[in-house]
Write a structure and sequence with these properties.
Layout: E1 9-13, H1 20-30, E2 35-36, E3 40-41, E4 56-57, H2 60-68, E5 72-78, E6 81-86, H3 87-94, E7 99-102, H4 105-114, E8 119-124, H5 128-138, H6 143-157, E9 165-168, H7 172-189
Parallel strand pairs: 1-7, 1-8, 2-7, 3-4, 8-9
Antiparallel strand pairs: 3-6, 5-6
Helix pairs in contact: 1-7, 5-6
């Protein structure tokens, strides 16, 4: 992009239950010009989720076809399902907007390799006890699944030093405002 401001690809990660989705929704209320990337997944929709809005819910064979064709910016497999980011969707959105990607740490690190100017932001819980409380408060998963998510959280948090920024989600408004400040700052760098 010649003299125009370049748009920021902000990759937001953090353990399941940390409140990433809530923080991102607040960010969109505060700055409606942002564009959220919609990821693909092979998992079943949760109650209230809409195809094409929350995720593109696709079959495992279709996902594997997208992998083989290079149609994904990144992808990973965990909890017996695939998750990935459609490359064309992100590239198109970056032409007109700052783009928010909400993906796991492995995917985020892959995006950083593909787009070195991507800004990696990890949302952290105040502490592990609060993270477990939030997971249980959802009421959507068994004790076994909560234990798996806590175990995964330890792995994800071990990658925090590879991120450009870490933001503690103690209070949703403050976390959302802090991430928006980061995006504005990074946008100035990309001028």
């Amino acid at each position: 992009m010649n003299n125009a401001k370049r748009n920021v690809l902000a990759v937001i990660s953090g353990p399941s239950g940390v409140g990433k989705g809530t923080v991102i929704k607040r960010m969109f209320l505060l700055d409606p010009s942002l564009k959220e990337s919609v990821s693909c997944t092979t998992r079943a929709p949760r109650e209230g989720e809409k195809d094409g809005q929350d995720y593109f819910f696709i079959s495992k064979p279709r996902f594997e076809e997208m992998i083989s064709r290079g149609e994904l910016l990144e992808y990973s497999s965990h909890f017996e399902n695939y998750y990935g980011t459609p490359r064309a969707f992100v590239e198109e959105a970056l032409r007109t907007s700052d783009v928010i990607l909400e993906i796991d740490v492995d995917g985020a690190l892959n995006v950083k390799r593909a787009y070195p100017s991507a800004v990696l932001i990890m949302v952290l819980p105040p502490d592990m006890a609060e993270l477990e409380r939030r997971l249980r408060a959802r009421g959507t998963e068994s004790d076994e699944k909560v234990a798996l998510r806590i175990s995964r959280a330890a792995y994800e948090l071990s990658k925090r030093d590879e991120y450009d920024y870490c933001v503690v989600n103690e209070e949703v408004d403050r976390a959302a405002e802090r991430i928006l400040e980061i995006i504005r700052k990074e946008k100035e760098v990309l001028k």
